[in-house]
Amino acid sequence: MEPCLNNLPKSSRLVLFKEMIIDACLLWHEKKVRVWKKNSKTNDETFFFTSESVAQDPDAKVACEVVTKTGMVFVFGEITSNAKDINYQRCIVRNVVRDVGYDHTDKGFDFKTCCVLICLETQSSNIASGVWKGHTDEDLGAGDQGIMFGYATDETEEAMPLTLMLAHKLNKKVADLRRSGELPWARPDTKAQVTCEYAIKDGACVPLRVSAIVLSVQHCPDTPRERIIDDLTKKVITSTVPERYLNNNTVLKINPCGRFVVGGPQCRAGLTGRKMIVDTYGGWGAHGGGAFSGKDYTKVDRSGAYAVRQVAKSLVKSGICKRCLVQVSYAIGVAHPISIAIFDYSTSDKTQEELQEIVKSNFDLRPGIIAHNLDLKKPIYLETAKYGHFGKDGLSWERTIDLREKVKH
């Protein structure tokens, strides 16, 4: 029986593997592993190679993809790096599959027996010469053309949409309880989706309540449905979603499809970049179309998106906007952005020209300068492999610049 309670919210989604090689080529002595996140299920540890590459060579050039399906992990792409002795198969892929929780054939995927295929080449010499060879940080060109967006809203302390933050927190809570043994029946594959009712006040988003939560958790075959619903309701939902957002009309859908025994790569294929909305703002703001994971800092899909998140969050946290969307565009091989646009949803008393001037005067959006300011040459990517790339403490692009003293009111 599906409950309808006071104490329940809703969420968004995550999945399995996504990042891979960057942190292992960055700082020679600081070895970290990074994953590759796909789709929208969750697993507390979704990390693969990005961190490995960066740990040994700060200037590694990485464009790496990952595919998983039943019993198989396929890693492919281009890597140019001075990093040595990176054992992709044993030290990265199999360890990550194990850490995610797939450690037995009963779960449909086993790190000990899965097939690992590696197909990695070096970066095109045309791209290298046009983008970074012979260039300093000041004139380092963008690794490709494209548009990127950064979004921020004052509805949460993290300056992130409440719907997405609750979804991430629900997934993380399930993973934490699974690892601690409090949910002994739970398996690694989970999804969460949260729906909130909002009011729009002078352009700002004001959450009123959580109207629905969808939570799907892979489970052991002999677990009664009643126990799954009871455990997830009491131990996960009501302890994660603030009580003020829940009421008798909140609808809870737990494993709405019924049995969820077959999950992970056995159930569906996973591919890098297939859940970009989960990685970003959960459907709010906008998305330029480029995935983040498996890319080094010269790929502006990643570094540009991180930079404009810092811009948007700084504008909101400084009280200049209550809600903000920043767009930037680049041309391959060109350092300076082609365009910058700021959308304030009518939440600022500044004109577009004034907002543009604030951004241009306080933020340098050249890729090499972004990499320097945000420490993107360091193996810091691990945390982005799970629960999204934004809204988490400790990430350099989540640090804000206080613009209040720099803006003339």
TrEMBL record:
EC numbers for this chain: 2.5.1.6
Cofactor: Mg(2+); K(+)
Organism listed in the record: Lepeophtheirus salmonis
An annotated Gene Ontology molecular function: metal ion binding
Pathway assigned in UniProt: Amino-acid biosynthesis; S-adenosyl-L-methionine biosynthesis; S-adenosyl-L-methionine from L-methionine: step 1/1
Domain of life: Eukaryota
CDD domains to which the protein is assigned, alphabetical: S-AdoMet_synt (cd18079)
Catalytic reaction list: L-methionine + ATP + H2O = S-adenosyl-L-methionine + phosphate + diphosphate
Segments forming domain S-adenosylmethionine synthetase C-terminal: 262-399
Protein name per Swiss-Prot or TrEMBL: S-adenosylmethionine synthase
